[in-house]
């Protein structure tokens, strides 16, 4: 007993809407000073995000901004990034490997997406915990040494 074409279309549409909404949230989180305020300046150039400085900032503010920017990968929301990549990867797998150029039934697609998501998510978290956090800590320690020498 297969899945009807109508339920396939509805499920793929809902999954796509969810992933697009998550992608927009990810973009706003990376490009806006406050991703949860609807009316805010979002230039998309990264100038009003964590770690950015302006010419009017003091040396200590600039160092604090560098320290904050160094933590951005460590503090990123990895499940969103993993979900976006798993959706794209699952679509490619679905169309190229699992079928003859058409989409597979949505339960199989969703299963594939969850498996790919888990692999990507746990890999990103492992990398963040064992590489990025160490680098962020080293940058923070170096900035603290520099602040002490400036004073």
Describe this entry's structure for a reader:
By secondary structure, the chain is mainly α. It has one domain (5-150). It is built from four helices and no strands.
In short:
The chain has one domain (5-150). It is built from four helices and no strands.
Features:
151 residues; mainly alpha; 4 helices
Give the secondary structure arrangement, pairings included:
Blueprint: H1 5-31, H2 59-70, H3 78-98, H4 106-150
Helix pairs in contact: 1-3, 2-4, 3-4
- Number of helix segments? 4
Structural class: mainly alpha
Tell me, what's the shape? Answer: elongated
**What fraction of residues sit in β-strands?**
under 5%
Query: Radius of gyration, rounded?
Result: 21 Å
Topology, number of strands? 0
Order of helices and strands: HHHH
What number is the mean pLDDT?
Answer: 83
Main sheet?
A: none
**What's the structural domain tally?**
1
**Helicity range:** 55-70%
């Amino acid at each position: 007993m297969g899945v009807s074409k109508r339920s396939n279309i509805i499920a793929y549409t809902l999954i796509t809407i969810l992933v697009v909404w998550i992608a927009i949230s990810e973009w706003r989180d990376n490009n806006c000073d406050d991703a949860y305020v609807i009316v805010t300046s979002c230039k998309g150039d990264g100038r009003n995000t964590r770690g950015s400085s302006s010419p009017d900032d003091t040396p200590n503010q600039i160092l604090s901004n560098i320290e904050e920017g160094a933590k951005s990968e460590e503090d990123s929301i990895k499940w969103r990034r993993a979900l976006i990549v798993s959706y794209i990867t699952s679509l490619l797998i679905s169309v190229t490997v699992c079928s003859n150029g058409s989409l597979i039934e949505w339960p199989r697609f969703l299963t594939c997406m969850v498996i790919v998501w888990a692999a990507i998510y746990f890999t990103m978290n492992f990398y963040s915990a064992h590489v990025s956090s160490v680098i962020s800590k080293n940058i923070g320690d170096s900035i603290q040494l520099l602040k002490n020498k400036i004073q």
